[in-house]
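ok so for the tutorial part 2 we go from a plain amino acid sequence to predicted structure tokens. step 1 is just haveing the sequence, like this:
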Amino acid sequence: MCMAKRFCACRHIVLALTLLVFPLSLPSSEAQVIYPTPHKKIIEFGWDIPSPAYLRDHLPEMEKRPFQGVAIRLPEDAGGGNVFDLLKWDRSTAAAREREMGILASLPRSDRLTDNFLTLYGASTMEWFNDADWKRVIENVRFCAKAAKIGGCKGICWDAEPYGGHNPWRLQEQPEHGKHTFAEYYRQVRKRGAEFMRALQDEFPGQTILALRLLSDFQDGSPFSQHLFPIRDDKKRQETLQEAWWALHPAFVNGLLDAAEPNLLLVDGNEDAYFYTSPLDFYRIAQDLRQDALMLVAPENRRKYAAQYRLGQALSIDYTLGLWAQDLSFPDYLKKQALELTPEQRLQWFEHNAYYAMTTADEYVWCYSEDMNWWTGKNLPAGIEGALRSACRKFEAGEPLGFTVETLLQDARRKLREKAGDKR
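step 2 — the prediction. this is what the tokens look like for a chain of 424 residues:
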């Protein structure tokens, strides 16, 4: 072997021995093989929704509750976040909007409530084909997006359920129903969804939109809409969608996706998770929204959907504690099952749902309540905060829940069927 080759071989041997004794020092980002665990965050949303001023004035007390964020709402004289309700927008004043911008700019930043959302609502007095209406809608949306950014929010919370006014999603309730076909409405609503998204992003790029419901409305077993996901026949699915309460909402969602920039996230809050009774329910919707829901996503949006669409989960205190038993239009065996449980078992059901909501959500779980107030303690059910904290502690520690509720709830539904003479 020539001297040059012998020298080269020796150098390689020395280098190899050196690396065995003194491993190559890599940058910390490359050397690390265990990365920080993604955090799950619980957002409070309910009838106790605070104004920006309330958040400013009561932040220390609010930080004591088991939440990582809160939905806030603008006062009515600043539009109330009712972006489709032109009558309320017309009654708002420039002075009130300026006042709210000042309050939002002054909000202290919290180490606890890090992910707050400004809420927008879908109650409507606009018409999809009316350009003058939509000019005012977009004006309202831009104001709200700017307000959310100034207030240090993570983004907007989009509650598309129409409370008052007409339902903008049901074909038969459109003011000009009969003048346009379903296909024409679908194209128009998709166009408006893109305009909506562009307005949000112009004023607040890179935000997260926490929508209480998006495509999850059409899951098998949804109490609020037709079940599209099990339907494989395209024609039958189209006919079913056209009659649905949320018929035009997928068009709006596709419009949002059409205009979504790569740095925006769109969270489906899966409001139907209120009614889940087993871990399988939580896991199944994750699969449904990643696979079956593609039948509602335009092919050109599917890559973007996979990259930017996230699964959230919802909790309902009222339903799991039986407080809605007289109000819901469900069959008794569904709406009254909590009344067949002991108070301790109802809290277990809530803890069960909180645990599996955190297990399956990509990042966000939102907790809904009605005639109670987390911030003042008024009507807050005994034990509910402890149940939520217990679920969080177990999840964060990687511990099992430690109990099941399926059999309890199956027995409760069986008893209610027997009382109603239903032998199924």
